[in-house]
Amino acid sequence: MKTKFFALAALAALGSGSALAQKAGDWQVGAGWLHFAPQDSSKPLTFTSPVAAVVPGSGASVGTSDTLGLNLTYFIDSHWAVEGVMGVPPKFELSGEGTLGPIGELGEARQWSPTLLAKYYFNDGEARFRPYVGLGATYVWYSDVKLTPGLQGALANRLGLPPSALSATTAKLDSSFTAVFNAGVAYQFDPHWGMAFSVSYIPLKTTAKLTTTARGFPVATSESSLKVNPIVPYLAVTYKF
Asked: Percent helix, strand, coil in the chain (nearest 5)?
């Protein structure tokens, strides 16, 4: 009788492990907290027209941002998977530094950065706890770019014009492809539900190009290069089907 009991228990344990397994053909969706922590630096604001000139000691920094992250993972086998990650586009604030520090906020923009990762999971597919590493790429672009009146006034002063003479200063941020380096851990609670935590590093840089107009006519252009290089933690609840 005892032998039969232990045999049944072993079969139940094996069945439970198989149910937890991440195997070829499995899909997994996730949603959770996505945090962007820029490790930023910038070059001085530089006028490119009507004459080339550097604004001495000027700089800018990019603030942190939080948003809802979403991911979809397909398991090629029990170790290799392909994952797409996208979040609600976070809003970033750009603040002045150095000689631009007194202005405070310079502007804001939303960042779009859909990401595709190839991931390798350690441990057996039946394990509840599985560390992983990933490598992939993202295409980054920006929308809703807005500059503050404080920055527009500073540009007018630099050009020797009264702020009332300027119609507007608009900005465009360059788009780019860049690599994504990723590592994390996953834990499976039952055959469907789990949690995952990862940290990504994105070597990202962009150039902000500004155009200043007076009474509808361009009077000056300027630009500043930014290295954003965000570290991106992602904590998600997952569902496997």
From this structure: 15, 60, 25
